[in-house]
Amino acid sequence: MTRHLSTIVLAACALVASLPAAAQWKGKGEAGIVFSRGNSDTDTANIKLDTSREIDRWKHGFGIAALRASSDGDKTAERYGAGWQSDYKLNERAFWFGGLRYEQDEFSGFDYQASASTGFGYKFVDTDRTKFSGQAGVGYRRSELTPTGEIDKEAIFRGDLKFEHALTENTKIIDAFIVEAGSDNTFLSNILALQVKMSDKFALSLGLDVRHNTDPPAGLKKTDTLTTVNLVYAF
After folding, report:
1. What is the span of the domain harbouring residue 182?
2. What would the pLDDT profile of 65-88 be if each residue is shown by its tens digit?
3. Phi-psi category of 37—alpha, beta or left, where left has phi over 0 and alpha has psi -120 to 50?
4. CATH code of the domain covering residue 215
5. Residue 73: which region, alpha, beta or left (left: phi > 0; alpha: psi -120 to 50)?
6. What's the number of domains the chain is made of?
7. What is the pLDDT of residues 163-176, one digit of tens each?
């Protein structure tokens, strides 16, 4: 496990450890690790942490994620990301948001992509069983291309869709879609997961993460997919 991934794991553990002191924080942590030894040596590790807190008309959310994979000592994936969003409730369904997103992906062709955005959001469905919301706004993105070190700066459109539905008392499906569209590149991400509760705190999650850049540097693929099986801890 690289120094970057170790640092993120330690930071995530420290954050989780501090949360009980602030009873209003809630969220979940996910982790999946696979080690294969024999005819080939393969290591894969991914972690996620998402937390949120509501204070009066405000809701603040923070998340981090890390992925590393190697085969026979050669890295095949390495990605680190973090995001923050604050929502101001206008009424029971509508809200105004402001958000930050940062991602470093060694194999995407972009050394990093960092963006800030703001806009309007709405909860189309908000029941105990089903939740569906969307948001749209504008922002600014700064990206560095890995091969050349060239910096791209551009205005973007930001859009999100979030869906969650309880199939049974212990099983639910979750989908989160993001688009950041600019003149130089459009980034799209969709994360689909099926979660099965094992207890009040623990669940298993089977997920599919699809990411797409419309204009990556020459020679690199536009789409990356990741399939995960993670242990989820809710707090």
Report:
1. 3-234
2. 998 888 877 787 888 999 999 999
3. beta
4. 2.40.160.40
5. left
6. 1
7. 999 999 999 999 99
